[in-house]
Amino acid sequence: HEPDGRRWADFHLGAAYEGPPGHVHGGVSALILDHVLGEAASPDRKPRFTGSITMRYLRATPLGPLHAEAAITRTDGVKTFCAGHISDAEGITVEAEGVFITPRWLRD
User: What is the CATH number of the domain that holds 74?
Assistant: First the structure.
């Protein structure tokens, strides 16, 4: 977590997460970005739930060391909009945008 609200994680994915040979399964990339975007959407430690998430697979994500990062882009009432990505040493492999909703039981 960064003071500016960005959330990030450095991690390593091995063979258990393989889809295409030598590369991360796209569903695993979606899971990781949903989690990191959700963390960014909840800066006050109150959960926001995924309303929608849009993935853009720019190139295959290789197995190995990776970085995921996300931040809030705007808010509108109970909706929090976030954007993020996964990258390797050569740059971004997957981008995502998500809308996260404050649940009724947390609304004032």
Answer: 3.10.129.10
